[in-house]
Amino acid sequence: GSQNPASLTMNGPRSVQAVFYNLQTSVAGAGTISVNWTNPPQGSNTTVTLTATAAPYWAFDHWTGDLTGTQNPASVVMDRTRSVQAVFVKTHYPLTATTPGGGTVAVNGQVLSQPTFYPIGSTVSLAATASNGWSFLHWQGDVTGTTNPVNLVMDKTNQVQGIFGTIVGTNIAG
Fold first, then answer.
1. Confidence band, pLDDT 50/70/90 cuts, at residue 152
2. Cα torsion at 64, 70, 76, 82 (round to 10°)?
3. Which pLDDT band holds residue 40 (cuts at 50, 70, 90)?
4. Chain-centre distance for alpha carbon 88
5. How much is the pTM?
6. How crowded is residue 115: how many other Cβ atoms within 10 Å of its Cβ?
7. How far apart are CA 52 and CA 86, in angstroms?
8. Prior bond to 5 cis, omega within 30?
9. How is 78-120 classified by DSSP, letter by letter?
10. Where does the pLDDT of residue 17 fall: very low under 50, low under 70, confident under 90, or very high at 90 and above?
11. Gap between the Cα atoms of 145 and 126, Å rounded
């Protein structure tokens, strides 16, 4: 049987065999799998519950291997050695918006001091503002051109730099 613990009356010669199975887990993307056991391997026909937990800016998508579907948490019966993978997908991409000097770059009206994450597919507005005596020249990196402000669709990791130059006046003496 599969009862655990099991009792056996020794009133003569007996043969007993305990059957255990291993569970191998892996992750695609960024996240973790927790398993509700304390001492692997698991006895035959033990039900094990797996819970997938996504890292920040990722989401659990589905299970592959010996466990399929999108239910989370999900259970698997240990009636043989099992292999299960949790698949996670990105939900946000980072944007770094900087300038080497001469002004500021604002994203949706805020100047960023570090990379900031935005939902995949969202549109952000980049606006370059020149300091006194400087002019906005162009965008560099994942946005190019001179349009200011400019919209950017967050479909990947983006790095953008606003380039500014000084205004130089010249007089021609004759």
1. very high
2. 10
3. low
4. 7
5. 0.74
6. 14
7. 6
8. yes
9. ESS-EEEEEEEEE-EEEEEEE-SSSEEEEETTEE-SS-EEEET
10. low
11. 12
